[in-house]
Amino acid sequence: MPDLQRRTRRSACEAQSPDYPIQKSPNAAGGLLLQQPAKDPAYREGASVDRSSMIQDNWPTDMPRNPWTAPTRTTRSIHIPIARLPHLLVPGQVVESPETRLRYRIERLLGEGGFGQVYLARRLGRSGAVPETVCIKVSARIDGWLREAYFGQLLDGHPRAIRVFDIFPLMRADGQVLYYLALEYAQHGDLSAFLHGAGKGWSETTVRREIAGILEVLRKLHRGQMLHRDLTPLNVFVCEGPRLKLGDFGIVRQQSDRRGITAHTMNAMTAPSDLLDRSVPKWQARDDVYQVGQLLGMLVRGDAKSRIRTHDVRQLRCSDHLKEIVHRCIGERRKRYESADEMIDALRNPPAELRTGVLRTLKGVHLAFTGILGKPRRDAARAAKRAGAIVHGGPSALTTVVVRGRPNVQQAAGRDAGLKLMEIKRLREKGHRITLLDETHFWRLAGQR
């Protein structure tokens, strides 16, 4: 990062961009162009995206706030008139990078976000490293530019991250420094716009493969103790294939330990509810996993208009195993996958089969019940206690035996994925030994038939 900052200061002083006038729309009040906003380089022109929940926390006091275009959000809900910034670049303008000596001709504005504005551009001249069509992302603010540049270098060459081809500042004739990124252009736009246009969900095979690809990027961040915090449909882009790629690393932060980082800004649509209501103090890797679970559910459902709730999971058109993965991601916080590694493993491997076991006695065992029993649950609990068992309300780290009745059709994520059965699987993954008994064997051990 220090090297990047030194190059920034040098390049800004050595190079100046042409002093093109700012074009103003006749429909814009006070020179603020009313233009369809976009979050990132792959925003598809004309797409309809609701950004009403997006509010920037550290917007400059001399600039109109705009909740539709902010990359970092508070959790407060406020109503503010929409305002657009003047164009920083104009169609036909050519900018030259002092770093690579490549020139880019601006074609049109794709959209704008809290970082700045995004333009479709053509590379002029020859280059073996930079494609002919790119996005030019430009801003007057250095903070987000430095973060994007840093993570562009960190993830350079990763097949699932939007590539950063060129990084440079330019000083205008009026003395203002603008900060540029030349980014990979995703032809199909962001995931939200793509699903809106397609109007249907993806196949389970495709969903598993593409979400695992996004998780590969997240795994690299998590292994470096970094948290993304902004894994939304607006920051995942659809390239040819279709192939999903992750972009916008503007609010990524590094944690000093596994307890996480204090989250002052977040996306109100996809942030976990316990962080939105401040019932937990810090964002952790499992909260990134929550957001990936939301993306997974949206891909299966075929739209990104609203978040997936736990009661929506059983209606998803996919296997019970995939429903279970979604539920575990977005359900109770302490039971989520703790990192991208754990979720990748779940997506790529079949679930362990829930086989019933055999016991000789109930004396001294810690026992819980699940499912629909042939007799009232209170009678079963009394019988278990008479046989010497310690009865629990649900599975825990102390539980050694679970008696399974008939499955409830309203189970959270399918026949083998009620809340208690999912907890048994999670505890077994942690190394706890839990024996599953069918009801017939339980009553035999309890001394009743």
- H and E string: HEEEEHEEHHEEEEEHEHHHEHEEHEH
Q: What's the overall geometry?
A: elongated
Q: Name the helicity range.
A: 25-40%
* Total discrete domains: 3
Provide the structure class: alpha+beta
Measured between the Cα atoms of the first and last residue, the distance is 72 Å
CATH topology of the largest domain: Phosphorylase Kinase, domain 1
Q: Taking all residues together, what is the mean pLDDT? A: 80
CATH-level-4 superfamily name of the largest domain: Phosphorylase Kinase, domain 1
Strand order of the largest sheet: 1-2-3-4-6-5
CATH architecture identity of the largest domain: 2-Layer Sandwich
Give the SSE layout.
Blueprint: H1 2-14, E1 94-96, E2 103-112, E3 117-124, E4 133-139, H2 142-154, E5 164-171, E6 177-183, H3 191-198, H4 204-223, E7 226-227, E8 236-239, E9 243-246, E10 253-254, E11 261-262, H5 273-276, E12 282-283, H6 285-301, H7 320-330, H8 340-348, E13 366-370, H9 377-386, E14 390-391, E15 401-404, H10 419-429, E16 435-438, H11 439-445
Parallel strand pairs: 13-14, 13-15, 15-16
Antiparallel strand pairs: 1-2, 2-3, 3-4, 4-6, 5-6, 7-10, 8-9, 11-12
Helix pairs in contact: 4-6, 4-8, 6-7
Walk me through what this model shows:
With about 450 residues, the chain is an alpha+beta fold. It has 3 domains: about 1-185, 2-Layer Sandwich (Phosphorylase Kinase, domain 1); about 190-350, Transferase(Phosphotransferase), domain 1 (Orthogonal Bundle), CATH 1.10.510; about 365-445, BRCT domain (Rossmann fold, 3-Layer(aba) Sandwich). It is about 25% helix and about 15% strand. The chain has helices at about 1-15, 140-155, 190-200, 205-225, 275, 285-300, 320-330, 340-350, 375-385, 420-430, 440-445, and strands spanning about 95, 105-110, 115-125, 135-140, 165-170, 175-185, 225, 235-240, 245, 255, 260, 280-285, 365-370, 390, 400-405, 435-440. The strands form 5 sheets. The chain has a 6-stranded antiparallel β-sheet. Helix 4 (about 205-225) runs antiparallel to helix 6, helix 4 (about 205-225) runs antiparallel to helix 8 and helix 6 crosses helix 7. The model is unreliable at about 10-80 (pLDDT under 50).
